[in-house]
Amino acid sequence: MQIRLETITSSAARSFSLMFNPRLSDLFFWHFHPEYELVYIENAWGNRHVGEHFSRYNESDLVLIGSNIPHLNFDYGVTTEYRKVVLHLKKEWVESHFLGTPELDRINRLFRLSSQGVAFRGALKRQVGASLFELEGLTPYEQYFRLVALLQALAESGETELLHEKPYQNPASTSDQERIRKIFAYIDANYQDPISLEAISDTCSLSREAFCRYFKKMTSYTFTEFLNRYRVSQAKRELLAGSSVSDACFASGFQSLSYFNRVFNRITGSNPSAFREAHRKGFPATRS
Fold first, then answer.
1. Over the stretch 25-56, which tens digit does the pLDDT of each residue have?
2. Less crowded by CB within 10 Å, the N or C end of the chain?
3. Do 142 and 28 fall within a single domain?
4. Do residue 158 and residue 183 come from a single domain?
5. Can you give the pTM of this predicted structure?
């Protein structure tokens, strides 16, 4: 399981690329890339993890992510028959074309705001999502002009949420990014078993104390808090798949049912049994 700087493969003659229904629900893919990204997913209930922002989306999500902001794939852990489209726009093209054209001033502002991450709400979210799917099969010329119209509609929308209070700055050097990837990959491969600070710190050649300081600096979470959140996301997946609370607890790496219940309730605002029962009736919102 690799977590890395993603290289977007597209024709050198194209300024943007589209992926329709890429399936990554079984892959924990914490990644970043220089391209701007607009992602839409529907018939899905999952985690929105962009930079330092962590929340839960319900039914659908439409998010614009700025250049080099790390994020988790939006379909990670999704168990429904979802649809997803991902648009990548080359950084050089955005910053030379959109940001340099006065007639596209509102789109210019939208891309500046993307450095904070922008989530869209309301009816426009669904409309833009449907329009993105309609781009499949069109010529590049047709895609280009429809894309500009979609971006203009998003730029004029008042139903938005900024995911960070100020532009997100990726704090990691290349070496830091590689170290964080190793840590996340180790968690992803071993979360079902006890993970000691000694074992996880060895993955990046740090002492326990240095590792704890480093991890908090890089992720804004203590290691225990991050691991608990990761395990809860896995437990949710187990519960949505029909597992009992006890089975979900131990399958996601918790060693105590009582501790699992406390952590699950603190993170999601619901106990596991209530979460399991409620989601059978319609997938209500939870805090994360």
1. 766 677 788 899 999 999 999 989 998 898 88
2. N
3. yes
4. no
5. 0.61
